[in-house]
Task: structure prediction
Amino acid sequence: MYSKRSGLRPYLDEVFKSVKITPNIQCEIVEDTAALGLVAINYGIALVPNINIIKLYDLKVINIENKLEDRNIYMATLKNRYLTPSVNKFINFMIHNTFNNQEFENE
Result:
């Protein structure tokens, strides 16, 4: 399970609470790759986001069919720092391809 300091842990805690499940947590991690590595050595199971790096591990991925609440993900950059054209292009892509893009400004 993700560490209590992780951004994903409070979300997962609420998901488990909503379905009245108390997970038997044996280990807390900070990084997705740590969770995948522990599963790969048969240390248990893990709930992780669907990230590309999963393909690098010999794991069985089981999709969760229950509808989960949406989760906010944020992007941050340093103020008053030069951003390369490729970074600006990525930021603009994200702004124009999100559902709630009214909140964002490319400063």
